[in-house]
Design a protein that fits this description.
alpha+beta; disordered C terminus; OB fold (Dihydrolipoamide Acetyltransferase, E2P); 29% helix; disordered N terminus; 16-stranded mixed beta sheet; conserved putative lor/sdh protein from methanococcus maripaludis s2 fold; four-stranded antiparallel beta sheet; single chain; 20 strands; 34% strand; transmembrane transporter activity
Length: 428
């Protein structure tokens, strides 16, 4: 057993051996730590941002104007009772198509047949009286000429004959009226169209001026499409036309297409047939009507649709993809690429929205190159890696890769420059 004050010689030799190994281990750890610190302190190696560019082109660009619209039958007819009486029966199928001249309702004709018979009897009486008056006048005339009768007798005979003629005319009018009223008991459709539901049931007593409405018939071909232009929009168009930034077709020969609620476009196109000469005092809008062929009856009255009006042109317009325009703190801007493939920030003024593109009203010139895809990764005055060149987007927002392969991927949805709704608001 060793004394604590005097350690075991073997243990001392072990400590000596461990002590001899510590300095090399510390040196190695220090060198590794130093190397790691040196690597972390340096800036990371960055490659050139990969982008897709487009050359700005100014050319005449067709524009479409869209409005909220509602369809209306080009001929909407009320089917009404024109005489008082009982409704016998409905003779059409509700909701089905009816033809012009087709019987839709039948009223009780018996009272009107009796009235016609009475009128005919009165006519016969007056005709008989006229015959007597004419024969009496024929006898009086020669006697008056021989002065066998006085002039008063002749005048009375002539007056009676004329009164009898007038009575016959009046009685004939009563017969015609009775015949017309009898005809009104058979109620027919005046046009080809779609019939609505019956407002009156069989056995109802109809009063022509009060409860005479029976149903409606809607003509489906052609169909009207009504939309309104606000006063602000009209003034905006007038200002742009005056400034030469917008050109309407001659004689307002616009082409109108209809976009249905599910986004499908109606196959038939139409033209503007009417524009109200005055603004509505209630809504402050200007009513415009377009007419479209509807041979299959696809459009029905009262539908809410989108009216797309084509034919206007923006002369020498500059149109760029929306993803090329970014929102800065105070304004919109794009990245303009110089001859050394370096990007410089350029403030631009955006105009109206056109598909997925924006009209640029100020800030860009034809022939300049801008960054389209990858704009969010661009650093000012840093050389870019141009992965592809895009064609002009003047044809309705379609972008075609001309060279350099596929365009660079777009930025994530959350990092995109502007949403479509914000773009539309900014263009106003």
């Amino acid at each position: 057993m060793s004394d604590p004050l005097f350690p075991n010689p073997r243990r001392l030799r072990g400590f000596a051996t461990l002590g001899s190994l510590l300095p090399p281990i510390l040196v190695v750890m220090a060198m590794a730590l130093f190397a790691g610190c040196k690597k972390a302190s340096g800036p990371p190696a960055l490659g050139a941002p990969e982008v897709t560019v487009m050359t700005v082109v100014a050319q005449n660009t067709p524009v479409d104007l869209e409005f909220t619209a509602q369809t209306q039958s080009s001929r909407e007819v009320e089917i009404r009772a024109r005489v008082d009486g009982f409704l016998d029966r409905r003779m059409y199928t509700e909701g089905e198509e009816v033809r012009a001249g087709q019987t839709m309702f039948q009223m009780d004709p018996k009272p009107f047949e009796a009235a016609l018979q009475t009128a005919r009897g009165q006519l016969a009486q007056q005709q008989a009286r006229l015959t007597v008056a004419q024969q009496n006048l024929a006898r009086v005339k020669p006697l008056a000429a021989q002065q066998a009768l006085s002039q008063k007798d002749l005048d009375d005979a002539i007056g009676n004959e004329k009164q009898a003629q007038a009575a016959v005319i009046s009685a004939q009018g009563q017969v015609d009226t009775a015949q017309i009223n009898l005809g009104y008991t058979t109620i027919k459709s005046p046009l080809n169209g779609l019939a609505s539901y019956a407002r009156q049931q069989d056995g109802s007593y109809l009063i022509a001026n009060a409860s005479g409405l029976l149903t409606y018939v809607y003509q489906l071909d052609p169909m009207w499409v009504n939309f309104s232009i606000s006063e602000n929009e009209m003034l905006h168009f007038q200002d742009q036309i005056s400034a030469g930034k917008l050109v309407f077709p001659p004689n307002s020969e616009f082409v109108v297409s209809v976009v249905l609620a599910d986004g499908r476009e109606f196959p038939q196109h139409g033209t503007i047939s009417f524009a109200n000469p005055a603004f509505s005092t209630e809504t402050g809008t200007f009513l415009v009507r377009a007419v479209l062929a509807n041979p299959k009856g696809t459009l029905r009255p009262g539908q809410f649709v989108r009216a797309r009006v084509s034919g206007a042109v923006r002369p020498d317009a500059i149109l760029v993809p929306q993803r090329a325009v970014l929102q800065g703190a105070k304004s919109h801007f794009v990245w303009v690429v110089d001859g050394e493939s370096k990007a410089h920030q350029r403030v631009v003024e955006v105009g109206d929205w056109n598909g997925d593109n924006w009209f640029i009203t100020d800030g860009l010139k034809a022939g300049e190159r801008i960054v389209v895809d990858g704009a969010i990764r661009v650093v000012p005055d840093v050389a870019l890696k141009i992965a592809g060149t895009l064609a002009s987007t003047q044809s309705g927002g379609k972008t075609i890769v001309e060279k350099g392969g596929a365009s660079a991927p777009e930025a994530p949805e959350g990092a995109r420059p502007m949403a479509q709704g914000a773009a539309s608001g900014a263009s106003q």
